[in-house]
Every structure is written in structure tokens, then in C-alpha cells.
Amino acid sequence: MTDNVVVITGGSRGIGRAAAIAAAARGFRVVVGYASNQASANEVVSAIEASNGKAIAVKCDVGSEADILALFKAADEFGTLGALVNNAGIVGPSMRVENMSAERIQRMMAVNVTGSILCAREAVKRMSTRNGGKGGVIVNLSSVAAKLGSPNTYVDYAASKGAVDSFTIGLGYEVAAEGIRVAAIRPGLIDTDIHASGGEPDRAHRLAHMVPMKRVGTSEEIANAIVWLMSDEASYVTSAILDVSGGR
Ligand code: NAP
């Protein structure tokens, strides 16, 4: 069977890794995108293959349009695209807006916003019934930061996720009659490497007391929501944003 390919950007670690494994367990052929960590991406592919699933690893910095085009070309060779998980995302070191460089803000928007929109563009070209496709699902990874604003930490990141929310709503309306559903998940504090990349490895656990459930979430808890949105169980869900955040 060569249909039902899912492209997952940033599938080599964290939430993307968990989503890749969960999608493979539900019969998707998984294209595991990664930025630079080929060993981690290969490990995800091996884990999927060990469970009799199908996966390939493809290097793709979503800040590069050329990389995105190559990612979808590889997906085309792997089968028929049925889903996209726009998961790749970055934060930056904590700081006030007045100290942010233009380069930092531009990179944040290039990866978190433009990258997601360009990947969605490529997915719509392939999946829209208007273009002869068989339909599909796009799941965007937003963040509760879009609601909270992340003052004194990374307002630029929060703003990028606000853009992801608006994009989810608008694209969902645009392609709703073309067989494509579009939804976003807003994770809360999830125990992944992203906090270390922002300079504070223990951030999620430090802030866990502020979560109504009083704990951080796991990548698997986000992946469960992703694969539900990708499934027919969510067949009437589009332009929707789901908080998976322990209440905050
Ligand atoms: P993570 O642990 O830092 O993993 C990031 C993944 O994205 C890795 O696979 C990495 O690839 C890839 N990546 C990084 N920069 C990339 C780029 N420019 N192009 C393509 N891929 C890139 O992140 P995570 O915590 O799982 O976060 C996943 C998504 O959930 C992000 O959109 C994030 O904003 C969102 N989110 C996370 C949390 C949280 O608490 N963790 C909360 C809310 C929202 P390499 O392995 O090659 O580096």
C-alpha cells in the first residue's frame, strides 16, 4: 500500500518523534523531517521499522523553501500524501523584546510561520480535490504561548504561534470543501529538548506548579491528539484549535 503518507517536520525528536511513531502505528507511511540531527531521525525510522512500519528520514530546514520542495518530492516518491504535521518549531533565549535582534525575530518567523505556510502550500497542491487529490489533514503545532504572550521570555515566539492559529483558521475555511481538514494543537509545558534550546533545560518542570494539573505533559500526550485529528474520528473537525495543556 503506497497511500497515506504523512510528512512530519521536525520528526526526529520530541513531539514530532512521538507523532511519527504514533502515526506509523496507525498505518501511515511516515516522512520524518529533521533539521540537522540525522542520527535521531534515523533512530525514529529504525523504531518504526522495528514495529513493521514504513518510514524515511529527509533533511529539511523549514526555513528554506528549497528544502521544503525537496521534502515533498521525497514524499511523492514514497506514496500518496494524506497528511502533514507542521511540527518543526524553534524558541530563542529568554529576553525582553527591547533586546531582540532583527535576525532572531526573522528566523523565528521564517521557521515557525513561513515554513509552516509553505509546507501547507505543498500539501494543499497535492491533497486538494480541486487539484485532483484525495483530500487529507493538516495539523499545525501552535502553543498556549499564543494566548499567554510569553512576556519577558519570548514574545516573538508567542506571536509566531498566534500567526499559526490565524493561519489554521483561514486555511481551514479555504480548503474545507476540497477534502482537507486543518487543525492546530496548542501544547502547554511539554517535557522536550526545546526548553534546553531556549537556554533553560529545566523550564518545563520549574513552571509545572502553574499548570492546573500540576505537571508537565509528555510528547506522547500531544501525539495522541495529533493522530486523533488525523483520523476519521475527527472527520467534522476543521479550522479548530485544541489546547492540550493540562488546563493552561
Ligand atoms: P524539540 O524537542 O526542540 O524538537 C524540535 C524538532 O524540530 C527536532 O526534530 C528538530 O530537528 C526540528 N527542527 C528544529 N529546527 C528546525 C528547522 N528550522 N526546520 C526543520 N526542523 C527543525 O521541539 P518540541 O518541544 O518537540 O516542539 C515541537 C513543536 O511543538 C514546536 O512547533 C513547538 O513550538 C511546539 N510546542 C512545544 C512545546 C513544549 O513545551 N515542548 C509547547 C508548545 C508548543 P533536529 O533533531 O534535526 O534538530
Compute the separation of the termini in Å. Answer: 41 Å
Largest sheet: 7 strands, parallel
Which bin fits the share of residues in helices?
40-55%
Shape: globular
- Structural class determined from secondary elements: alpha/beta
* CATH class value: Alpha Beta
Characterise this structure:
- The protein is built from 9 helices and 7 strands.
- The chain is an alpha/beta fold and 248 residues long.
- The chain has one domain (5-244): Rossmann fold, CATH 3.40.50.720.
- It has a 7-stranded parallel sheet, with helices on both faces.
- Strand 4, helix 4 (102-127) and strand 5 (136-141) form a beta-alpha-beta unit.
- Helix 1 (14-25) packs across helix 9 and helix 3 packs parallel to helix 4.
- The radius of gyration is 17 Å and the shape is globular.
- The model has no long low-confidence stretch (mean pLDDT 97).
- NADP nicotinamide-adenine-dinucleotide phosphate binds next to helix 1, strand 2 and helix 7.
List keywords for this structure.
alpha/beta; globular; 9 helices; about 250 residues; binds NADP nicotinamide-adenine-dinucleotide phosphate; Rossmann fold; about 45% helix; seven-stranded parallel β-sheet
Strand-helix topology:
Elements: E1 3-8, H1 14-25, E2 29-34, H2 38-50, E3 55-59, H3 65-78, E4 80-86, H4 102-127, E5 136-141, H5 145-148, H6 155-175, E6 180-187, H7 194-197, H8 203-206, H9 219-230, E7 240-244
Parallel strand pairs: 1-2, 1-4, 2-3, 4-5, 5-6, 6-7
Helix pairs in contact: 1-2, 1-9, 3-4, 4-6
The structure holds NADP nicotinamide-adenine-dinucleotide phosphate.
